[in-house]
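Hi everyone, sorry if this is the wrong subforum. Our group has a chain we'd like a structural model of before ordering constructs, and none of us has done structure prediction before. Sequence below.
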Amino acid sequence: MPRLSEADYRSILEVVEKAAEVEGVIPFPTAVLDALRHLVPCDVVTYHEEREQRLLVYTGEPVAPMTKEIRRAATRYAHQDPLVPAAEARTISDCIRKRDYQRLELYQEADRPLGIEHMMRLWLEPTGTDAARLEFDRADKDFSERDRAVLDLVLPQLRQFRLRAVARRRAPSRTPESLDRLTAREREIVGHVAEGKTNGEVARLLGISSGTVRKHLENAYAKLDVHTRTAAVAALNELN
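Answer:
Right subforum, don't worry. Here is the predicted structure as tokens:
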């Protein structure tokens, strides 16, 4: 592994900080991609994902726009793609000689028109599930061992951030109507729980039994579609 500089580690930290700020279902919006492009200078950084529908987010300065013709060619010749799923960052030159790559229809009709002469790909799921990946494109020079090293170093964190976004996407959405379904007593009890009170303390405060407190909490859990005290408090705060 090449020796990394203090500036390299600061850039890695910037990527992690930007990704940690994301709260939506897209794990790598343009702010994160900009930080990645600063970490590994290139023409374009793109996040691809194919789930129920195709997701593509990019930042940078492509040589030419992605036209329908180029998109069709990329699909038609996808089987020629030399960058198959891998556990670490890989470049085109890792997998195929340059002259052989340039003979491919994929290069001639899709990559070349976009100015892609060199690419490094980072698979966010080594098996290729959902085709979730980050792609770094350059027209001028190939990627270095330093570029590979910084991406491999930050890869575990990037995979975790993607999994968090997937979990948010799969989580049942809550609306203000969820809160409306709680009775006044259920909201009151969850409010006391949010203050750190135990079931016994809430029971004594309200003059009811601990079993009644527990039953109210169970009803609140069901209405908020959660399973724990912490999750119920978080859901209540989210909807307030």
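For your construct planning: The two ends are 50 Å apart (CA to CA). The domain at 6-170 is CATH 3.30.450.40 (Beta-Lactamase).
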